[in-house]
Design goal:
By secondary structure, this protein is of the alpha/beta class. It is 39% helix and 20% strand. Strand 6 (109-113) and strand 7 form a beta hairpin. Helix 7 runs parallel beside helix 9, helix 7 (231-245) crosses helix 10 (284-295) and helix 19 (587-600) crosses helix 20 (660-757). It starts with 32 loop residues before the first strand and ends with a helix.
């Protein structure tokens, strides 16, 4: 390879930056920076990688290695012989330039800000440092979607958490093929975590980076505003995702969706989203990978430590102070990913209890949910790589974790506080009666409309005074009437009681929009009009007499036609009673006829009644008919108004004279009129009484209606609470089923292991009672399954070992194992080993006694002794 001139001093700034590069003939976009992680033994992989980087690639490479802090770094000199690019050992505040390689110096941690490298003194002791994770995290934050992470040959798991940060920011991750690596632990850790976008031998990775950047830049140059993109193609992607995974991503932010999809397109060198849709249809595995891509999220223990310190030091103690003695706090970690934040809350609760030192015992029940089933499975296992030491203090690691292989397992005390389950927060019912909700960096991926539905739902789920813990880029927006900030910077909020009446809470089942082109509310179909219905309507409007349907008290139920000439609203409080609304001239006669019609069940007709109309009079006939048929109208009364011509007045030509007979007739009429007036007064009093009764009945009905409405609201709330309780039970059931499956697997593994060794094993508790025994134990002891729980000393044995019980007690006391060779009554020999039984928490729970059959060895030993004795005898003779 052609060598470049000796590199300039790293402090020199280039006069110009190349406007073009090997990736395209267009003006260069922002400088791509490639972060490369490898261990000290990965020199060969680094040389293979740099040897295949083309000249003028326009990229910068930053190499982070695990170096011995006591030795001078010679890696830059070694790599300079391999590549034509300038290779520098990084110095503090060195600006990154294109076509250059930067190597971390020994005994330093390195970060990057705005394209400038910064060196730090290591804070972790030797052997616990994670410089690759430290740099890749800063690279992801600084370069966002332009960040590129590469993991080459190396031991351990350093780099995995940094790659997760790069993926979260839509960068790209490349990993060396483990089979081609001298040390495959680091590449395999990244692959097992599901973070690798491309896996290939070290020498093939540079060209894959260049191809990815070329297509990413094509997409950037051709990118149009979001609303002008191919919406149909995006909807097809969503449909394929829903068909494969059962989850609807239509409520996720479109910009986030496009960014993730275009990243996958760049990896596969696909230029158009329509072509990517076809690729998804033909490759079901890519649908799964895209699903994982959409769910990827940065999470780690005690992210934003200051916020966790406030939660532990101030707010959890406040919740404990308001909790009844011996009570249980309830928490929900929504979008928990692989469980780090749920376990962080459990640890913070334990530490808060240690600070408060309550006299009564308190517990915390945490429900941790996520959409990603694989992430939930990892969270349930509670096993994390050694690089969590970057976020978890040595004291917490010692107290709450168990070192296991090359990583850490969450201790039983913390694990039992958390229940994990798969749940879709925008589709499934929420948990309720909660004291704490942790939902960090989930809302930022959802549309504003969905955020406005979720925040009231969180308010509904929290108890009064409950805590909402959001991500650093999230807020409660306009819902200041629901949540009050405890610390705006830490994004901790307390549920507040609104002074306004609570609005109905939309449950997740209503969040999902209708399919495109289909209205969420179905409109009623109008019946087709026909000739008969139109004719009937015309007759009713123009030729049918005005009429009123009333009940037996005179309250108007239905009006047909124009009745304004005969009825008018009464002054004062609205009153829809026919007698109060009848005009002058109808009122008294109508009341009498109404009573007769109701009593006698017959039609009563009043003829020639006169009513005032626009300064004149109108003659009208009124028919009052009690209704018997149909059944639905029985007991009601129909009142029909018919206008008639007003007869002309007849005037006598002269002054009239009154005869004695006429006077008598006048007196009779006056008496009859007085009687009618008295009857009318009685009727009016009865009607007033009836109106009062009706008013009272109406008030009772209104009260009953309000009670029914209140009951309906209570039933609705109960139904929603039942949905939440059902979700909670399903979560607990899923957790228990997972534990049962894991226990069954462990039990099977242990049984097969013990049987394969052909070593008889008996487990005893601290009282030396039988807890369990393996196959073959019944050949040494008279054991049956029913003997579990009995003292081993009560069970007869074929062994000539009378002091076995005393030996077991001595092992329990001193914790020093005992091993002896013991014979049996039938001539067999066994190596009997008695050891303490230690639990995962390093607690002594009894003893384990193993019996290995050494009869063959003893027989051979006896034969050898006899042979030696025979040879000695022959030698003397």
């Amino acid at each position: 390879m052609k060598k470049q001139p000796p590199p300039k001093s790293p402090d020199e700034e280039p006069a110009t930056i190349p406007a073009q590069n090997a990736l395209s003939g267009h003006e260069s976009p922002p400088l791509p920076i490639v972060g490369i992680g490898a261990s000290a033994g990965g020199l060969e992989a680094l040389e293979q990688f740099l040897r295949h980087v083309p000249e003028g690639c326009g990229m910068a490479f930053v190499i982070v290695q695990h170096l011995d802090p006591t030795h001078k770094g010679i890696l830059p000199e070694l790599l300079q012989r391999t590549t034509g690019m300038a290779v520098f050992q990084a110095r503090d505040r060195m600006r990154v330039k294109p076509d250059c390689v930067y190597v971390i110096p020994p005994n330093k941690d390195m970060s990057i800000l705005h394209g400038v490298l910064h060196l730090f003194e290591p804070t972790a002791p030797r052997g616990l440092r994670l410089p690759i994770d430290f740099f890749l995290r800063s690279l992801a934050e600084d370069q966002q979607e332009r960040s590129i992470g590469v993991i080459l040959s190396g031991m351990g798991s350093d780099g995995t958490m940094g790659l997760r940060a790069i993926k979260e920011n839509a960068g790209v991750v490349l990993v060396q093929e483990p089979a081609s690596a001298k040390f495959d632990s680091m590449p395999r850790s990244a692959i097992d975590a599901g973070l690798a976008d491309l896996v290939a031998p070290a020498e093939e990775l540079p060209v894959k980076i260049i191809d990815y950047l070329r297509h990413a830049r094509v997409l950037t140059r051709t990118e149009r505003p979001l609303e002008e993109k191919d919406q149909s193609a995006l909807e097809k992607v969503l449909i394929l995702l829903r068909a494969k995974t059962g989850h609807d991503f239509s409520l996720y932010k479109k910009t986030t969706m496009y960014r993730r999809i275009e990243r996958r397109m760049g990896i596969h060198q696909i230029d158009r989203i329509a072509a990517y849709v076809r690729y998804l249809q033909e490759n079901s595995q890519e649908v799964e990978l895209l699903f994982k891509e959409l769910l990827i999220g940065v999470t780690n223990f005690f992210r934003d430590p200051a916020a966790w310190e406030q939660l532990k030091g101030e707010f959890i103690p406040a919740l404990l102070a308001g909790c009844p003695a011996g009570g249980v706090l309830r928490a929900w970690s929504a979008g928990c990913s692989t469980g780090e934040e749920a376990y962080s809350l459990a640890i913070a609760f334990k530490e808060a209890l240690g600070q408060v030192k309550p006299t009564e015992s308190f517990n915390l029940q945490i429900f941790a949910t996520d959409l990603d089933r694989d992430a939930i499975d990892k969270a349930r296992q509670g096993v994390y790589p050694a690089n969590i030491a970057a976020d978890v203090s040595p004291e917490r690691l010692r107290r709450y974790f168990i070192q296991e292989g090359s990583g850490y397992r969450v201790g039983k005390e913390i694990r039992e506080m958390v229940t994990f389950a798969t749940q879709n927060v925008i589709m499934d019912p929420p948990f309720t009666k909660l004291d704490i909700i942790i939902c960090r960096n989930l809302l930022i991926y959802l549309t504003p409309e969905l955020q406005k539905k979720l925040l009231p739902l969180f308010h509904y789920s929290l108890n009064p005074g409950g805590i909402l813990f959001l991500g650093s880029a999230e807020t409660v927006s306009t819902f200041t009437d629901l949540f009050t900030p405890l610390n705006t910077k830490s994004r901790l909020f307390r549920r507040r009681e609104s002074l306004l009446p609570p609005e109905p809470v939309a449950f997740p089942s209503s969040f999902v929009p209708a399919l495109p082109g289909v209205s969420k509310e179905l409109t009623m179909m109008k019946p087709a009009a026909n000739l008969q219905s139109l004719a009937d309507q015309l007759l009713l409007q123009h030729f049918s007499p005005p009429a009123v349907l009333v009940n037996d008290k005179g309250d108007i139920l239905y009006i047909s036609g124009r009745t304004g000439k005969y009825l008018e609203p009464a002054a004062g409080k609205a009153n829809w009673n026919i007698f109060a609304m009848a005009r002058e001239g109808l009122r008294f006669d109508l009341g009498s006829a109404f009573q007769k019609a109701v009593r006698h069940k017959e039609a009563i007709t009043l003829k020639g009644l006169k009513i005032g109309e626009n300064g004149g009079t109108q003659t009208v006939d009124v028919t009052v008919q009690a209704i018997e048929e149909p059944e639905a109208l029985r007991g009601m009364v129909m009142i029909i108004f018919t206008d008639v011509a007003t007869p002309p007045e007849k005037r006598a030509p002269g002054r009239s004279r009154t005869s004695p007979a006429g006077n008598t007739r006048v007196l009779e009429l006056e008496q009859e009129l007085q009687q009618v007036r008295e009857e009318l007064q009685t009727t009016r009093e009865e009607m007033q009484s009836s109106q009062e009764e009706l008013k009272s009945t109406n008030e009772e009905l209104q009260s009953t209606n309000e009670e029914l409405q209140s009951t309906n609201e209570e039933l609705t709330t109960s139904r929603e609470e039942m949905q939440s309780l059902n979700e909670e039970l399903q979560t607990v059931n899923a957790e228990q089923q997972s534990k049962m499956d894991e226990l069954s697997r462990v039990n099977n593994d242990m049984r097969n292991l013990l049987n394969s060794t052909e070593i008889v094993t008996v487990f005893l508790d601290n009282d030396l009672h039988v807890r369990r025994f393996t196959t073959g134990a019944n050949k040494l002891f008279k054991l049956i399954p029913g003997d579990v729980g009995r003292p081993l000393s009560d069970i007869s044995s074929d062994l000539l070992y009378p002091g076995m019980t005393e030996e077991a007690q001595e092992v329990l006391r001193t914790l020093i194992f005992s091993e002896k060779q013991i014979s049996a009554t039938d001539g067999r020999w066994f190596s009997v080993r008695i050891m303490p039984y230690r639990t995962m928490e390093d607690v002594i729970g009894g003893v384990v006694i193993t019996f290995a059959d050494i009869t063959a060895a003893k027989t051979l030993e006896a034969e050898l002794r006899e042979e030696i004795s025979r040879l000695k005898t022959e030698g003397r003779s």
